[in-house]
Amino acid sequence: MPWQTQDFAADSGPTRYRESPLALGLRRILRKRSSRVALFVLGVIVLVGLLAPLVAPYNPAAQPDIVGLKDLPPSFAHPFGTDPYSRDVLSRVIYGARLSLMIGVLATIVSLTVGVAYGAISGYAGGILDAVMMRLLDACLSIPRLLLLIGVLVAWPNFSIGALVVFLGLTGWFGLSRIVRGQVLALKHAEFITAAQALGASRRRILWRHLLPNLVSPIVVAATLGVAHVIVLEAGLSYLGIGVPPPLASWGNIIHDGSDQGATLWWMALFPGLFMVLTVMTLNILAEAMSDAYERR
Amino acid sequence: MLRFVAQRLAQAAVIVAIVAVITFTLIHLAPGDPFSAVMDNPNVSEAVRQTLRVQYGLDRPLPEQFARYVSSLAHGDLGWSYSYERTVREVLGTALPNTLLLMGVALVGSFTLGILIALIQVARRGSVTDHALSGISLLLFSMPDFWFAILSLLAFTYWLPIFPVGGVVDPVMHEYLGLWGRIVDRLRHLALPAITLTVLASAAVARYQRAALLDVLPADYIRTARLKGLTERQILRRHALRNALLPIISLIGLSFPALLTGAFFVEKIFAYQGMGYAVVSAIGTRDYPLVMGGVIIGSIMVTLGSLLADLLYALADPRLRGR
Q: Are B145 and A239 within 8 A, CB to CB?
């Protein structure tokens, strides 16, 4: 949509940015009540995750009494119940927030780096290189991400969290790089790019200083959706027992720990799932608000 | 049109070839070889392992191994499943029809339901109903498949025992039922997994279709229809929906990966013996050939799905049909 980018270029000005695109976007988003609520809820979840050691009532790994305190339904002492190892599920959910959010953000940073570079190069280079890169991308897109990750994780058992983050990131950039390529293609022949070329700017300078700043909005939207996606994927993999390694608490892991006795230990599936849905939903609301704000419907 | 079909077929072939390269690379980058996982058993001597490696051609140079790999793929040979003690092809072959049935029902169901919801929303845009339905579809859209499946299993087999707990058929009674009894038994077992997957998938369709309809509404021909004195209902059904159906066809192709991964979790949770169930159980037993077989078949299904959607699109769009 060329008009969208023009509109954006006019907003942020051909001169210097007075307001960064991010701040501008944030200001526009906050005009909507639903996104204010979403931002607040997400903020609380992030804060709870960051302050996990202060907020959590118990040690998430402690197994105080594996016989007497195991499998307890929710009560005042344990609002979310306890698991088969007598650990407090509330504390695990809180620490899980920390780990799941961290994995989501870090993996998305990996995806962003790769995806933006790949898309920008492909779109800017054009020609045969572009065609080859896009066919490769098509192939990557037609392997379902979950299946690819299952293949990798089963091949390399005993993954560290760092490697898990890298692999989640490396399988998450395909869609984004396609968006970036499309935007670069649309902008490639814009007047300000021609002007920069006429002034003798190098390719690299044009990519970095002129093209990328105009791509901030679609990238931020894709990144927000990407975090949500990674959180769900990580939870799914952990639920299957090949995600985050067991003693640690992630939302998927907690559900996995209760899955053998799913019918009786319902609290172990319900509560971490609620937090997950809340997080993913707020991220979706914010992404939608952002793309609306930038498109200015 | 013919040229378009040929181009698109060639493209699909290239994609499948690249998928083969990727899976081959994955298999070869993995630590150890296919036998180290099965033969952790110390009683198996190094000599035996070496013989096996030679037998399976693992001592050959990589290009030759790749050629063999591709040729066996082309022959439908996906290797040996250690946990099922049958060929991967047999295991997936018996499971695939169940998965296709589940996915097919969910595909038809979710698009019907999704389009219906979108129509209701757009007919009453801005109303409480519209907002409520938007909220519900956003909630469902944000739900991890496996969590929703767990909840629906808990709700409708344990708390309100309406449906059978799992499986494709009743393990004991099925053999003794007549033809009708068997069909009913199958449908009873299919119902809850299919409903779960349908509801999950319909959220995305409804959101997408609502936006597509709203995009079409400001068009001139809608204004003309309105000026002609058509009712809002007629406008929506005859003019808006028809034009908003094209993006739906491309959405069918795009929704395949999500539907497939959704089916994987749903099958695992409802113990519905399809491809997803087989692959997920292979994770636990580290049955690598079966897992990779699932990855390959899954990717081929997705490629075929998007190919089919593109061809349908070309058929449905008069602008493309003429070419």
A: no
